[in-house]
Design goal:
Elements (H helix, E strand, L loop, with lengths): L2 E7 L10 E4 L4 E6 L5 H11 L24 E6 L6 E3 L15 H7 L2 E5 H6 L12 H8 L4 E3 L5 E3 H10 L10 H33 L3 E3 L8 E3 L8 E3 L7 E3 L13 H19 L10 E5 L11 H10 L4 E6 L2 H11 L5 E11 L4 E9 L3 H14 L3 H23 L14 H14 L4 H11 L2 H4 L13 H18 L9 H9 L6 H25 L13 H9 L11 H5 L2 H4 L5 H5 L3 H11 E2 L2 E5 L3
Parallel strand pairs: 3-14, 3-15, 6-13, 13-14
Antiparallel strand pairs: 1-2, 1-4, 4-5, 7-8, 9-12, 10-11, 15-16, 17-18
Helix pairs in contact: 5-6, 6-7, 6-8, 10-11, 10-15, 11-12, 11-15, 12-13, 13-15, 13-17, 16-17, 16-22, 17-18, 17-22
């Protein structure tokens, strides 16, 4: 059982009367939202919809600017089972335990949902100030509250019910017998200890996956609850409401971890505690039921390098849950989208604060984004180009190229120049790393042609257009860059990749009686890649000496050195034919060269370097 869509009408940041929908399509949902745009409205809607009793009436969530009646405020869920949508309104809450008005799917999900925001994570550490961390109330109310305990007569009660039973058994007067409250405390202590014992192994597993082995956690310390009687009512109380944690960090045991561990480790600890609780104690169901995990900016205390293990934990342990991940961090949104995009298990949306001009009130814009981050940027580039907004289109094309390079490096484990902040990995460095990798992997030579195709539009893809005084980029150049980047992305898609050779692809693109301009440009990029690889191979075989540089030497540098090499110069019979097409093969093609290409020009360059009877050999091989 999964959610197909969530619709908010006049709810918190989403003013009525028009509804705003988030399409999950039965998948997990990753949402980026600017602060104040309405991201947390999604959290409150899901938390209170899937509950037996919402934290407050829905009319208290009504948008304050819309001027619509209270009855218009509603949250609507459509499940992926093909049934009619279910709504929470002023008149009705679908999680009601009343058989007449409640929805069984909502009530089952209310038992199995967990909604955490960053405040929840902080409650596990910073809430305690300078005192020792005490997780008793968090454990009873949230972590182990639904752990089933079998009591006398074979009756099953949850830990939370046992605790409430103990509170209800408190003597009204000091003369009243304590037998009932003592018995209730004993039942609670036994059940609570069982729950804590069951929780610990799962917590250790998650903590290790999030933090490694440097932080370890001993079993929970719970002394047991006892009731203290006294003459004065104010002195009567339940003692022992303590659950202490014993943490070891690199051999040291801090008494107050919240004052010792850094924010990232404390956040990881808090998150591990909550997630372990849900994994350990989520009730089983007789029929397929929704298990929902909603996380609203819970990773705010983690730096970007420590956030990817959280996605690994979700992928590994929450495979049968539906996850809604909300963030205001744009960089993290893009990182998470790239990490999850190949699984086909996630949908993506962005929420931006805008304005209803007619009414003069804030109005969020919800935008569903492509589940492939790089393709999504290309879509935006095309839209802006269609509107003749060339600067914005160039910016999105560059972003797509950068994402494609990162995807390439991730997929093939390409070593990249290190930077502490992944946001500052330069596109030029990524491109150089990819080119070096292709040079060392002959089986991937086809990709060299794709990379050459993108490099023809260097002004677009290698210059941050958002900087001051941007270069003057032509609309045609941006259009060419978009097509070249799409070919790169298609090459990374196993379903679209080809095993054809560079010169074979060149010939096939030129084979049509009247090939398109795009085909001619693409043919030139594959031809240039074939020549580049053969030139580098020649220089390696002949041990041509070139000046050392971290960057790959250009074709012009290699050609000039090889042509004048004392021991093994390039044969003089080859030089004139190649140099006649130097503007394509040797030098970096200019925009004028690219836009002026014809089928005849590229065919002539192909004829100058190919060897008759050897389809993939060039004159330098």
């Amino acid at each position: 059982m999964k959610i197909k869509s969530l619709t908010l009408t006049d709810f918190r940041a989403f003013p009525g009367p028009a509804p705003q929908s988030f399409n999950l399509d039965g998948k997990n949902l990753l949402v980026y939202g600017e602060n104040g745009a309405g991201k947390s409205s999604i959290f409150h809607a899901l938390r209170d919809f899937f509950s037996f009793k919402p934290t407050k009436p829905i009319q208290d969530h009504k948008n304050v600017f819309s001027g619509q009646p209270d009855a218009d405020c509603r949250v609507t869920i459509e499940f992926a089972d093909g049934t009619a949508p279910v709504a929470w309104s002023k008149a009705h809450h679908p999680g009601s335990k009343s058989i007449a008005t409640g929805d069984p799917r909502v009530k089952e999900a209310a038992l199995r949902r967990s909604c955490l925001d960053y405040r929840s994570v902080l409650d596990t550490n910073y809430l305690h100030g300078d005192n020792e961390i005490n997780l008793f109330h968090i454990a009873v109310k949230q972590l182990v509250h639904d752990f089933p305990v079998t009591v006398a007569g074979g009756v099953t009660k949850t830990v939370e019910e046992l605790w409430q039973q103990a509170i209800n058994a408190e003597p009204v007067t000091r003369y009243q017998s304590h037998e009932r409250v003592n018995e209730a405390c004993a039942l609670f202590n036994a059940g609570f200890n069982q729950a804590l014992t069951a929780l610990h192994p799962r917590l250790i597993t998650l903590l290790g996956e999030l933090l490694g082995t440097e932080v370890t956690l001993s079993p929970f310390q719970f002394p047991g609850v006892t009731y203290q009687t006294a003459h004065q009512t104010r002195d009567r109380k339940f003692n022992g409401q303590e659950v202490k944690i014993d943490i070891t960090f690199r051999g040291h045991q801090p008494v107050r971890p919240q004052n010792f561990l850094n924010e990232a480790r404390l956040s990881a600890l808090g998150l591990a505690i909550y997630l372990a609780g849900r994994l350990t104690f989520v009730p089983t169901a007789a029929t397929p039921s929704l298990k929902l995990l909603v996380l609203d900016d819970v990773l705010i205390g983690l730096d970007h390098s420590n956030r990817l293990p959280v996605l690994e934990v979700l992928k590994k342990h929450f495979v049968d849950w539906q996850i809604v991940l909300l963030t205001h961090d744009r960089v993290w949104f893009e990182m998470a989208r790239m990490y999850t995009q190949d699984s086909n298990l996630w949908s993506y949306a962005e929420v931006y604060e805008s304005e209803d001009v007619d009414r003069g009130i804030p109005y969020p814009i919800v935008r569903k984004v492509n589940d492939k981050a790089a393709y999504g940027c290309l879509e935006q580039a095309r839209k802006f180009l269609a509107d003749h907004h060339v600067p914005a289109s160039a910016n999105y094309a560059r972003a797509s190229f950068e994402l494609a390079l990162k995807l390439f490096c991730q997929r093939f484990a390409v070593p990249v120049q290190f930077n502490m902040d992944p946001r500052h990995v330069d596109t030029e460095n990524l491109l150089s790393a990819v080119e070096r990798w292709i040079k060392d992997h002959a089986a991937k030579a086809t990709m060299a042609g794709v990379i050459e195709g993108v490099k023809l539009f260097r002004k677009v893809v290698l210059n941050p257009y958002s900087h001051a005084s941007p270069p003057n980029i032509a609309e045609a150049e941006v259009k060419g860059a978009i097509s070249a980047i799409e070919r790169l992305l298609d090459t990374l898609d196993p379903k679209k990749a080809t095993d054809k050779k560079l010169l074979e692809i060149t010939r096939s693109l030129l084979a049509a009686p009247t090939p398109t301009v795009e085909d001619v440009v693409t043919a030139m990029s594959y031809l240039r890649a074939a020549f580049t690889l053969s030139l580098r191979s020649y220089c390696e075989r002949k041990r041509v000496a070139v000046a050392y540089s971290n960057a790959l030497s250009s074709n012009r540098q290699l050609w000039d050195k090889a042509k004048t090499d004392v021991t093994h110069p390039i044969p003089h019979t080859i030089v004139p034919a190649v140099e006649a097409h130097g503007h394509i093969l040797i030098d970096e093609p200019s925009l004028v060269t690219v836009t002026g290409l014809t089928q005849i020009t590229v065919q002539a360059a192909l004829a100058a370097i190919e060897v008759a009877g050897c389809p993939e050999k060039t004159v330098l091989d």
